[in-house]
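C-alpha cells incoming
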C-alpha cells in the first residue's frame, strides 16, 4: 500500500484517480500519534474543556438567572450587566447589596443632586425651627427657666443623650442610613441639642440672643450662596480643618486657665471663623458635582447633621462674642 495525495492507495483496488478516498473517522496510523495526544486544533475545544470558573471571559451571563444578575460571575468585557435587585436607580458603581450604600459615588444626574439637596435642607430646616422654638421658650417663659434651674439633672441628661446619639450616628452607618432608626436618633439628638442651647441662651439677655440669631442667619445664608457658586474646591481641606479644630480645642483649654475678655474674644472669633469654613466644606460635600469629594445620597441624615452642627457652633461663638463685648 503506497501513500499518495494525502491518503493511502491500494494498487489492487480500481478507482478513478487511483485509490479510494479516506473514509470519515478512518486514520491508518497517519500522521504518527504524538505523545499526549494530538495537538489542539484551532477553533476546537481544548483538553479539559470547560475550564474552572465557567463561563469563560467574554461569555455572556445567563439571562435566566433571577433578576438577571449573578454576583458569582465577574462582569464580562463588552457585556452590559443588569443592575442588582432593589438597587436605587441612577447610582454609580460600587453598590454594596448588604448595606444598601454606594461607595465612591459621584453625582451624574442633576435630578438626583437636586432631590438630595432638597431632602437635606428640609431636614435641616426642621431642626433649626425646633431649636429656635426651644431658645424662644427659655428666653421668654419664666416658669420654664425656673423649672430648669430647680432641675439641674436635666442638663446632664440632655448632654448624655446628645453625646450618645451623635457618636452612634457618626460611627454606625446602619444607624444613620436605615429608616426609621435614623430619624429616631436624629430627633433625639436635635431635642437634646435644642434643650442645651436653650439653657445656654438663658444666661444672656433676649436682645443679645436675637442679635446672635440674626447674625448667624445672615452669615450662614451668605456662606451657603458662596459655596454653591464659587469655583474653589473646599472639599480638599478636610485635613487642614481637622487640625484647626484640634488647635482650637487646645486653645480653649488654655483660655480656661487664663480668663479674660481679650482671650474670650480671640477664642470665639477663631471658632466662628473655623466653623464658617466648615459650613462651606460640608455644603460642597453635599453638592458633589465637579468637587473632588462628595457624600453619597444615602447619607442625607449625615449631611443634615454636619450642617446643623456647623450652624450651632457658629451661633454659639457669635453669641459669645456679643456677650463679651457687652459685658
Amino acid at each position: 500500500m503506497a501513500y499518495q495525495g494525502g491518503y493511502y492507495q491500494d494498487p489492487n483496488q480500481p478507482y478513478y484517480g487511483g485509490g479510494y478516498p479516506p473514509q470519515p473517522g478512518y486514520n491508518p496510523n497517519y500522521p504518527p500519534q504524538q505523545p499526549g495526544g494530538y495537538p489542539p486544533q484551532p477553533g476546537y475545544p481544548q483538553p479539559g474543556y470547560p475550564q474552572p470558573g465557567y463561563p469563560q471571559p467574554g461569555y455572556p451571563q445567563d439571562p435566566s438567572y433571577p433578576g438577571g444578575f449573578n454576583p458569582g460571575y465577574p462582569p464580562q468585557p463588552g457585556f452590559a450587566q443588569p443592575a442588582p435587585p432593589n438597587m436605587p436607580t441612577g447610582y454609580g458603581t460600587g453598590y454594596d447589596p448588604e448595606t444598601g450604600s454606594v461607595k465612591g459615588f459621584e453625582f451624574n444626574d442633576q435630578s438626583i443632586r437636586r432631590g438630595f439637596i432638597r431632602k437635606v435642607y428640609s431636614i435641616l430646616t426642621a431642626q433649626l425651627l425646633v431649636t429656635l422654638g426651644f431658645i424662644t421658650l427659655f428666653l421668654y417663659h419664666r416658669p420654664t427657666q425656673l423649672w430648669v434651674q430647680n432641675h439641674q439633672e436635666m442638663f446632664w441628661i440632655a448632654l448624655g443623650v446628645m453625646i450618645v446619639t451623635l457618636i452612634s450616628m457618626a460611627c454606625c452607618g446602619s444607624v444613620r442610613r436605615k429608616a426609621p432608626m435614623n430619624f429616631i436618633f436624629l430627633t433625639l439628638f436635635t431635642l437634646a441639642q435644642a434643650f442645651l442651647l436653650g439653657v445656654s441662651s438663658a444666661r444672656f439677655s433676649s436682645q443679645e440672643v436675637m442679635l446672635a440669631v440674626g447674625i448667624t442667619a445672615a452669615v450662614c445664608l451668605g456662606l451657603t450662596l458662596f459655596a454653591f457658586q464659587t469655583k474653589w474646591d473646599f472639599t480638599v481641606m478636610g485635613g487642614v480643618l481637622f487640625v484647626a479644630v484640634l488647635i482650637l480645642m487646645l486653645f480653649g483649654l488654655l483660655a480656661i486657665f487664663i480668663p479674660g475678655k481679650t482671650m474670650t474674644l480671640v477664642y470665639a472669633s477663631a471658632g466662628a471663623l473655623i466653623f464658617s469654613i466648615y459650613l462651606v466644606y460640608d455644603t460642597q460635600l453635599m453638592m458633589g458635582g465637579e468637587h473632588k469629594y462628595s457624600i453619597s445620597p444615602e447619607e442625607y441624615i449625615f449631611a443634615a447633621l454636619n450642617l446643623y452642627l456647623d450652624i450651632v457652633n457658629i451661633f454659639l461663638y457669635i453669641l459669645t462674642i456679643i456677650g463679651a463685648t457687652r459685658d
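note: Residues 102-326 form one domain.
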